[in-house]
């Protein structure tokens, strides 16, 4: 399909990491296990993201140093060919936007390298770099927040939305096509809701250029 705008999820779609789970691993096996369970249930659509977002961060209590470390992981785990594919899209005039329920301060360095805007959830730290709170007004900390953000962006159409989790499926209502990305994680309910399924950025690039 001819595409004017592409909206990409980040965790397990653009990059091979679930940021909140990576942070939890730094707090030991008990916190990691509990956080992973909550993440999986939210991404599988069993419970709304709204119910677990603050709970996970409170358990992890991430520092600014932790978040900076996560930013490096995002850059190391970007999907094969993704950077080149995004560069080719933007060169052709396609608008590419990252929309994520992840932590903005961790994703922003990668977004700057790619030359694309990012919409994510900001954290607040004190003067010593200790976690204070997250942006509770952000729609991206809620189950259907990506739909709200997508609608607010007024992107040129047609719009292609790409993601791997249940929070990404909501974007289907405002996009012209929703693609399930399975290169890092395959969730059957997301695949079932998608208009197409890809497992690599090479496949996604072909889909974007197909007539």
Structure description:
The chain has ten helices and eight strands. α4 runs parallel beside α6. It has a six-stranded parallel sheet with strand order 3-2-1-6-7-8, with helices on both faces. A two-stranded antiparallel ribbon has the order 4-5. It is an alpha/beta fold and 211 residues long. It is 45% helix and 18% strand. The protein is globular and about 50 Å long.
Topology:
Elements: E1 5-8, H1 19-25, H2 29-43, H3 49-60, H4 64-76, H5 82-91, E2 95-103, H6 104-114, E3 118-121, E4 123-125, E5 131-134, H7 145-153, E6 159-163, H8 166-169, E7 177-181, H9 188-193, E8 196-198, H10 201-209
Parallel strand pairs: 1-2, 1-6, 2-3, 6-7, 7-8
Antiparallel strand pairs: 4-5
Helix pairs in contact: 1-2, 2-3, 4-6
């Amino acid at each position: 399909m001819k595409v004017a705008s592409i909206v990409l999820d980040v965790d397990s779609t653009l990059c091979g990491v679930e940021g909140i789970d990576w942070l939890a691993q730094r707090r030991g096996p008990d916190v990691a296990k509990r956080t992973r369970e909550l993440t999986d249930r939210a991404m599988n659509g069993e419970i709304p993201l709204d119910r677990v977002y603050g709970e996970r961060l409170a358990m992890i209590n991430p520092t600014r140093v932790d978040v900076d470390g996560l930013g490096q992981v995002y850059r190391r785990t970007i999907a094969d060919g993704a950077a080149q594919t995004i560069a080719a899209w933007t060169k052709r005039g396609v608008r590419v936007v990252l929309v994520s329920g992840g932590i903005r301060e961790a994703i922003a360095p990668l977004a700057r390298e790619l030359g694309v805007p990012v919409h994510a959830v900001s954290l607040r730290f004190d003067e010593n770099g200790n976690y204070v709170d997250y942006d509770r007004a952000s729609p991206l900390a809620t189950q259907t927040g990506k739909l709200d953000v997508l609608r607010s962006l007024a992107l040129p159409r047609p719009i292609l939305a790409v993601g791997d989790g249940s929070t990404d499926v909501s974007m289907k209502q405002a996009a012209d096509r929703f693609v399930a990305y399975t290169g890092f994680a395959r969730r059957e309910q997301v695949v079932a809701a998608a208009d197409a399924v890809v497992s690599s950025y090479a496949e996604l690039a072909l889909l974007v250029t197909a007539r």
